[in-house]
Each structure stands twice: as C-alpha cells, then as structure tokens.
Amino acid sequence: MYFIDTVQAEETTHESVVTNTDTGLLSSFGVNGPLFFFQLVNFAIVFIILWFLILKPLARKLAERQKIVEKTLDDSKKMEETLKKSEEDYQARLRETKVEANYILENARKESEVAGNLMKEKVKSEITGLVEHARNMVKEEKEQTIRELRLETTNLLALALEKMTGEKIDEKKHLEDVLNKLK
Questions:
Q1: CA distance 6 to 103
Q2: SS3 per residue for the chain
Q3: How remote is the C-alpha of 138 from its chain's centroid?
Q4: Taking the domains of the chain in order of start, what are their residue ranges?
Q5: What does the pLDDT look like over 36-88, one tens digit per residue?
Q6: How far is CA 173 from CA 144, 162, 169, in A?
Q7: CA-CA distance, 157 to 180, in Å (whole number)?
Q8: What's the rounded mean pLDDT across residues 173-178?
Q9: pTM above 0.85, yes or no
Q10: Closest Cα to residue 157, out of 176, 134, 129?
Q11: How far apart are CA 173 and CA 183, in angstroms?
C-alpha cells in the first residue's frame, strides 16, 4: 500500500506541474505572479518607510558623528603639535636659563672673590693701622712713663741731695748742676 500511495502522489505532482506550465514562466519556478507582485510592492513600501524614517536619519547622524570624530582627531593632532612645540620651547628656555644661571653664578663667584680680596686688603690695612696706632700709643706711653720717672727720680734725688748737702735745691737747673758736681 505504501507503494501505491507513492505512485499516486507522483502522478498528482506530475499533473500539477504540467498544469502550472500552462499558466506561465513564473509558475514553472513555483512563484505565484500576483502574490509576488503584492509582496514586491509591500517590500518597496516597507523599504521606503525604513529609508525615510530610520536609515536616512541614521546615515545623517553617522555622517555628523564622523565629522565630529574627524574634527576631534584633527584637534588632537594640533594639540599634539602645540604640545611638542611647547615642550621644545620649554626645553630651549630651560637651557637658556641654565646658561644664564651658570653665568650669574660665575659672575657672583668672581665678584665675591674680588669683594673678598678687597675686604682682606681693607682688613689688613686696618690691622696695620691699628698695630701702628698701638705702637705709637705704646711709644707715647713709654715716653710719658719715662718723663714721669725722670721727674720723680729728680724729685727724689733732689730730696736726697738736700739731705746730704744740707742745701735746698729749688729748681731743676740747680739740681743738674749739683748732679754734675757729684760726678
């Protein structure tokens, strides 16, 4: 029974293929012409709706975002270039500043040496002046002390001579005469 059903099914299929050939080329491919036409129109309507409501605004947004991304990339490249220039300027200024600082330090060192030498000379001259002044003071004090000792010695000698000779010695001149006699 199975075999019979299969044979009968083939005959029915064969008859339907033969009858479909009569209606047209599309039906030979198994396509229903009016249904295909309505599906095509339906697809076109859906495509147009999708195009105008979704795809076109989406394409416009994508284009805008693409422009924003490109602008951002251009800006970042410009910023990188500016940063590189700034870094180069910074390094150049840093080098100039180091050179100036070294120059200033060298000048300060030279000036401090000159000032130190001047101070040393000034201190030496002041010390020399103070030593000379001290020597003069000592010399004057020594001479003053010697004068005072002479006067005191003369007075003591005059007293001693007065006691020895019995004469009163009034003046220095007279004292010198007495001393000369004693020698």
A1: 112
A2: CHHHHHHHHHHHHHHHHHHHHHHCHHHHCCCCHHHHHHHHHHHHHHHHHHHHHHHHHHHHHHHHHHHHHHHHHHHHHHHHHHHHHHHHHHHHHHHHHHHHHHHHHHHHHHHHHHHHHHHHHHHHHHHHHHHHHHHHHHHHHHHHHHHHHHHHHHHHHHHHHHHHHCCCCCCHHHHHHHHHHHC
A3: 64
A4: 48-182
A5: 899 999 999 999 999 899 889 999 999 999 999 999 999 999 999 999 999 99
A6: 21, 14, 9
A7: 13
A8: 62
A9: no
A10: 176
A11: 16
Average pLDDT over residues 17-27: 57
**Structure tokens given for 1:** 């029974």
The position carrying tokens 């599906």 is 39
Joined together, the tokens standing for residue 128 give 């020399």
Rounded Cα gap, residues 80 and 84, in angstroms: 6
Rounded CA-CA distance 18/12 in Å is 10
Least Cα distance to 36 among 45, 23, 27 occurs for: 27
CB of 161 closer than 8 Å to CB of 178: yes
What is the token pair recorded at 123?
Answer: 């201190």
Give the whole-angstrom CA distance, residue 170 versus residue 158: 8
